[in-house]
Amino acid sequence: MPVPLRYNLRSLVVRRAGTLLSIASIGLSVAVLVLVLALARGFELSLVGTGTDGNLIVLRKSATSEGESGLQRWQFRALSAFPGIAVGETGAPLAAAEVYAALNLDKSGGGSANFPLRGVMLSSFRIRDTARVVAGRRFTPGTREVVVGKALLGRIDGCRLGGALQLQGQDWPVVGVIDSGGSAYDSEIWCDVEVFMQELDRPVYGIAILRVDAQIEGGAGALATSIEDDPRFDAKVMTEPAYFAAQAGTLGEVLLFTGYFIAGIMAVGAAFGTAVTLLASLARRTHEVGTLLAVGFRPREILAGFLVESLVLGLAGGVVGVLIALPVNGVATGTMNWDTFTEQAFAFRITPGVVMRAVTFSTIVGVLSGVVPAWKAAGLPPSEALRR
Known about the structure:
Layout: H1 3-14, H2 16-48, E1 55-60, H3 73-80, E2 95-106, E3 112-120, H4 122-127, E4 132-136, E5 146-149, E6 164-167, E7 170-179, E8 189-192, H5 193-200, E9 207-211, H6 219-229, E10 235-239, H7 240-247, H8 249-284, H9 286-294, H10 299-325, E11 332-337, E12 342-347, H11 352-378, H12 382-387
Parallel strand pairs: 3-8, 5-7
Antiparallel strand pairs: 1-9, 1-10, 2-3, 2-9, 4-7, 5-8, 6-7, 11-12
């Protein structure tokens, strides 16, 4: 290792008080960034990981979400008979009409929030097979029975297996629990679509979900294009994962902006603090720097040595920040999805991508904080430095 770099790295150990202070200040700003990035990533994964590419969602062309869509009964019947739809063991097409709405329900800890209620057919369980009933059973068609996502258990009054939800002034018994592996369905309540439409006085379905025949030429893309080109439907067709990924857009972007904005403000303070610490350290090390210059090291090597010193501080601060935030990984939380205006349950996710962003951020902060001290150290005349 070249002498200047060895000298700079050893100085971090010798001047440990200033080093630890700089690492802590950078680490705190990074911890805030990690928390918000983990929040955004958890929300994104809960939606992006929903569904399979072999399922198509058919909405009204002008709709941006299920809640805005409308589908006539005759249109659903025509879609069910459309060439390219897979069929089940009984020969019936794997197609289901559904209705989606946000209902305001009382939360267990007080207050209320909008929660998603999805009216489905029994065929929906076959098509949306990533959502499995892991406790209890499916609802009985024609009744007010519901199955609930596991993330809702204990979050809504009466939301437990054997309990009952208060919907439209009626008791709706909870007979089953859905587990979809952390996807959006874990935050939904499912009931019979016909009962749902009757209770809410809805004359039309919201969407259709279709399973694509694996043997169809061109796959899901070709079938989606055929349906969109058919003037009977005036429809927009998306794969199930693509639809849910689109729902993550607005809030995900806001969370990312918020994270970088807050962490950026804190990082400015951390960078100034680190720069002041390095400048104070330089004032006590002027003679040492002069000696290095006098024995033949060039100013650019001194500059590089001090930049490496600040880079190490930034990297260390990033590691500390990640470690501070790490305990929240997997902690369940929830927030409103701004596209559907419903409560979305998910967990903080500190993924490798989140860690990489955080460490990159801290490294940049560290290097920027060392630019002025490094430049000043490299510009010291050797004769003047040795006299100090």
